[in-house]
Design a protein that fits this description.
The chain has helices at 2-18, 20-30, 80-96, 113-123, 137-141, 172-182; strands at 39-46, 52-54, 59-60, 69-75, 101-108, 129-133, 149-153, 158-164. The protein is α+β, with helices and mostly antiparallel strands and 184 residues long. The chain has one domain: Glutaredoxin (3-Layer(aba) Sandwich), CATH 3.40.30.10. It has an eight-stranded mixed sheet with strand order 1-8-7-4-5-6-2-3. The longest helix has 17 residues, at 2-18. GO terms for molecular function: disulfide oxidoreductase activity; isomerase activity. Pfam families: Redoxin. Residues 1-23 form the signal peptide.
Length: 184
């Protein structure tokens, strides 16, 4: 068993040493504290190209956010932890959002537009990109089995982090991790 651990450590060291993008993951990993201890950071992994819908029923996709860091939050109107978490996502967008970073919400499953709009209004969040995955296709393809789940995508659109459960995304710890990931 010990040789397997040594090989895994060697592979990890070689991967991070040879891949500058992965070095950002190492820097971010070192900053994980508080709710961010639940954040799993990893080498970039492609996200399936599955269509979503906007609140106006127009076809949308996560591909439209390529070129910036994206925090994608999978949630539902019936999810109590999602209700607690949503204001911190709105605050994070307000503090870090811009040309290089965006928070995107994806209502997973059967969430009617009126219920989504009511949920967001009650949470005091009206400025987040709100998409829908009404049949759960993207959620299934990405292995989302519970809610909330938040996924971090790099500018190429690949997943580099995942946090299962709710978190305070506007905390100093969360902003530190995200800032380290986004560092050039």
């Amino acid at each position: 068993m010990l040789p397997v651990i040594r090989l895994a450590a060697l592979y990890t060291a070689l991967f991070f040493g040879a891949n500058p993008a992965a070095a950002d993951v190492m820097a971010a990993d070192a900053l994980r504290a508080g709710d961010m201890k639940k954040l799993n950071l990893a080498a970039p992994d492609a996200v399936p190209a599955v269509g979503l819908l906007g609140l106006d029923d127009a076809p949308r996709s996560l591909d439209e956010f390529k070129g910036k860091w994206v925090l994608v939050n999978f949630w539902a109107t019936w999810c109590a932890p999602c209700r607690v978490e949503m204001p911190s996502l709105g605050a994070l967008q307000h503090s870090l959002g811009g040309p290089g970073f965006e928070v995107v919400t994806v209502a997973a499953g059967r969430n009617g537009v009126p219920q989504i709009e009511k949920f967001m209004a009650e949470a005091g969040v009206t400025h987040l990109a709100a998409l829908r995955d009404p049949k759960g296709a993207l959620s299934r393809e990405m292995g989302i089995v519970g809610l909330p789940v938040t996924v971090i995508l790099n500018p190429e659109g690949a997943e580099v982090g995942r946090l299962i459960g709710d978190a305070d995304w506007n905390s100093a710890e969360a902003r530190a991790v995200l800032t380290a990931l986004m560092a050039p």
